[in-house]
Amino acid sequence: MKLYRARIPDIAKKVIEDLVKDGSLEVLPENRSEAELDLVAVMEEYLRRDAHLRESVRESMSRRGIPYDRYSKVRSEVAGEMGHPTGNEVERFLARQFVEGFMISRFVEEVYGEDGELMKRIRGILESFDVDERAIREEAREKVKNLEEGTVDYEIALNHAIKEVKKRHGLLVERPR
Known about the structure:
Blueprint: H1 8-21, E1 25-26, H2 32-64, H3 71-82, H4 89-104, E2 110-111, H5 115-128, H6 133-143, H7 152-168
Antiparallel strand pairs: 1-2
Helix pairs in contact: 1-2, 1-5, 2-3, 2-4, 4-5, 6-7
Protein backbone atom coordinates (compact mmCIF):
# COMPACT_ATOMS: atom_id res chain seq x y z
CA MET A 1 0.00 0.00 0.00
CA LYS A 2 1.18 3.48 -0.80
CA LEU A 3 -0.06 6.04 1.70
CA TYR A 4 -0.87 9.43 0.19
CA ARG A 5 -0.71 12.48 2.45
CA ALA A 6 -3.86 13.91 0.83
CA ARG A 7 -5.88 10.84 1.88
CA ILE A 8 -4.73 10.77 5.50
CA PRO A 9 -7.56 12.91 6.98
CA ASP A 10 -10.17 10.85 5.11
CA ILE A 11 -8.66 7.58 6.35
CA ALA A 12 -8.60 8.81 9.96
CA LYS A 13 -12.19 10.01 9.75
CA LYS A 14 -13.40 6.72 8.23
CA VAL A 15 -11.59 4.56 10.81
CA ILE A 16 -13.03 6.47 13.78
CA GLU A 17 -16.47 6.75 12.18
CA ASP A 18 -16.76 3.04 11.34
CA LEU A 19 -15.37 1.76 14.64
CA VAL A 20 -17.65 4.04 16.65
CA LYS A 21 -20.64 3.11 14.49
CA ASP A 22 -20.13 -0.63 14.98
CA GLY A 23 -19.56 -0.23 18.73
CA SER A 24 -15.89 -1.20 18.75
CA LEU A 25 -14.87 2.20 20.14
CA GLU A 26 -16.51 4.80 22.28
CA VAL A 27 -15.48 8.32 21.35
CA LEU A 28 -17.45 11.30 22.57
CA PRO A 29 -18.70 13.52 19.74
CA GLU A 30 -16.65 16.46 21.02
CA ASN A 31 -13.49 14.29 20.94
CA ARG A 32 -13.89 12.80 17.46
CA SER A 33 -11.69 15.34 15.69
CA GLU A 34 -8.94 14.87 18.29
CA ALA A 35 -9.18 11.07 18.01
CA GLU A 36 -8.85 11.47 14.24
CA LEU A 37 -5.80 13.70 14.74
CA ASP A 38 -4.19 10.91 16.79
CA LEU A 39 -4.49 8.63 13.75
CA VAL A 40 -3.26 11.40 11.45
CA ALA A 41 -0.14 11.70 13.64
CA VAL A 42 0.54 7.95 13.30
CA MET A 43 0.27 8.12 9.51
CA GLU A 44 2.37 11.30 9.28
CA GLU A 45 5.09 9.60 11.35
CA TYR A 46 4.97 6.61 9.00
CA LEU A 47 5.45 8.97 6.02
CA ARG A 48 8.33 10.71 7.79
CA ARG A 49 10.03 7.36 8.37
CA ASP A 50 9.33 6.36 4.77
CA ALA A 51 11.02 9.55 3.51
CA HIS A 52 14.00 8.77 5.74
CA LEU A 53 14.09 5.26 4.26
CA ARG A 54 14.14 6.65 0.70
CA GLU A 55 17.01 8.98 1.59
CA SER A 56 18.95 6.14 3.25
CA VAL A 57 18.46 3.94 0.18
CA ARG A 58 19.72 6.69 -2.15
CA GLU A 59 22.78 7.29 0.04
CA SER A 60 23.53 3.58 0.30
CA MET A 61 23.22 3.06 -3.46
CA SER A 62 25.37 6.09 -4.20
CA ARG A 63 28.03 5.12 -1.67
CA ARG A 64 28.22 1.54 -2.95
CA GLY A 65 27.85 2.42 -6.66
CA ILE A 66 24.70 0.33 -7.10
CA PRO A 67 22.67 1.01 -10.29
CA TYR A 68 19.12 2.39 -10.00
CA ASP A 69 17.54 -0.77 -11.42
CA ARG A 70 18.37 -2.47 -8.07
CA TYR A 71 16.48 0.18 -6.06
CA SER A 72 13.70 -2.21 -4.95
CA LYS A 73 16.13 -4.82 -3.65
CA VAL A 74 18.22 -2.26 -1.77
CA ARG A 75 15.05 -0.63 -0.41
CA SER A 76 13.88 -3.97 0.97
CA GLU A 77 17.25 -4.58 2.61
CA VAL A 78 17.46 -1.12 4.20
CA ALA A 79 13.79 -1.27 5.30
CA GLY A 80 14.51 -4.59 7.02
CA GLU A 81 17.50 -3.10 8.82
CA MET A 82 15.43 -0.10 9.92
CA GLY A 83 12.41 -2.21 10.89
CA HIS A 84 10.25 -0.13 8.53
CA PRO A 85 7.25 -1.86 6.93
CA THR A 86 6.85 -1.87 3.16
CA GLY A 87 4.40 -3.32 0.66
CA ASN A 88 1.69 -5.48 2.18
CA GLU A 89 3.05 -4.92 5.70
CA VAL A 90 2.04 -1.23 5.74
CA GLU A 91 -1.65 -1.92 6.49
CA ARG A 92 -0.77 -4.37 9.26
CA PHE A 93 1.72 -1.90 10.78
CA LEU A 94 -0.69 1.05 10.70
CA ALA A 95 -3.56 -1.05 12.08
CA ARG A 96 -1.39 -2.18 14.98
CA GLN A 97 -0.27 1.39 15.64
CA PHE A 98 -3.90 2.62 15.57
CA VAL A 99 -5.05 -0.04 18.05
CA GLU A 100 -2.14 0.69 20.40
CA GLY A 101 -2.98 4.39 20.09
CA PHE A 102 -6.63 3.78 21.01
CA MET A 103 -5.51 2.16 24.25
CA ILE A 104 -3.57 5.22 25.42
CA SER A 105 -5.54 8.04 23.80
CA ARG A 106 -7.30 10.41 26.14
CA PHE A 107 -9.81 11.03 23.33
CA VAL A 108 -11.02 7.42 23.17
CA GLU A 109 -13.33 6.68 26.10
CA GLU A 110 -13.40 2.92 25.74
CA VAL A 111 -12.21 0.17 23.41
CA TYR A 112 -14.71 -2.67 23.20
CA GLY A 113 -13.33 -4.66 20.27
CA GLU A 114 -10.68 -7.35 20.48
CA ASP A 115 -7.27 -6.30 19.12
CA GLY A 116 -7.30 -8.85 16.29
CA GLU A 117 -10.79 -7.92 15.18
CA LEU A 118 -10.02 -4.20 15.35
CA MET A 119 -6.88 -4.66 13.28
CA LYS A 120 -8.78 -6.70 10.70
CA ARG A 121 -11.45 -3.99 10.38
CA ILE A 122 -8.84 -1.24 10.16
CA ARG A 123 -6.87 -3.13 7.51
CA GLY A 124 -10.08 -3.41 5.48
CA ILE A 125 -10.62 0.34 5.72
CA LEU A 126 -6.99 1.05 4.76
CA GLU A 127 -7.28 -1.31 1.79
CA SER A 128 -10.38 0.56 0.63
CA PHE A 129 -8.16 3.64 0.27
CA ASP A 130 -5.47 1.77 -1.67
CA VAL A 131 -4.73 3.20 -5.10
CA ASP A 132 -4.21 1.21 -8.28
CA GLU A 133 -0.80 2.62 -9.18
CA ARG A 134 -0.75 0.63 -12.41
CA ALA A 135 -3.99 2.29 -13.59
CA ILE A 136 -2.58 5.73 -12.79
CA ARG A 137 0.56 4.96 -14.75
CA GLU A 138 -1.48 3.67 -17.72
CA GLU A 139 -3.66 6.79 -17.70
CA ALA A 140 -0.51 8.92 -17.69
CA ARG A 141 1.02 6.86 -20.52
CA GLU A 142 -2.03 7.62 -22.65
CA LYS A 143 -1.25 11.31 -22.27
CA VAL A 144 2.32 10.92 -23.57
CA LYS A 145 1.82 8.26 -26.23
CA ASN A 146 2.92 10.76 -28.88
CA LEU A 147 6.48 10.69 -27.49
CA GLU A 148 9.04 7.96 -28.09
CA GLU A 149 9.31 5.69 -25.08
CA GLY A 150 12.73 5.48 -23.45
CA THR A 151 13.77 9.03 -24.28
CA VAL A 152 14.52 11.72 -21.73
CA ASP A 153 11.59 13.79 -23.05
CA TYR A 154 9.28 10.81 -22.61
CA GLU A 155 10.39 10.22 -19.00
CA ILE A 156 9.99 13.89 -18.09
CA ALA A 157 6.57 14.07 -19.74
CA LEU A 158 5.48 10.80 -18.13
CA ASN A 159 6.47 11.98 -14.65
CA HIS A 160 4.58 15.24 -15.23
CA ALA A 161 1.53 13.31 -16.51
CA ILE A 162 1.60 10.98 -13.48
CA LYS A 163 1.56 14.00 -11.15
CA GLU A 164 -1.35 15.51 -13.08
CA VAL A 165 -3.34 12.27 -12.91
CA LYS A 166 -2.67 11.97 -9.18
CA LYS A 167 -3.77 15.59 -8.63
CA ARG A 168 -6.97 14.96 -10.56
CA HIS A 169 -7.68 11.90 -8.42
CA GLY A 170 -7.07 13.93 -5.24
CA LEU A 171 -3.93 12.05 -4.25
CA LEU A 172 -1.53 14.95 -4.10
CA VAL A 173 -1.69 17.91 -1.77
CA GLU A 174 -0.88 21.27 -3.28
CA ARG A 175 1.90 22.76 -1.20
CA PRO A 176 2.12 26.53 -0.83
CA ARG A 177 5.25 28.05 -2.33
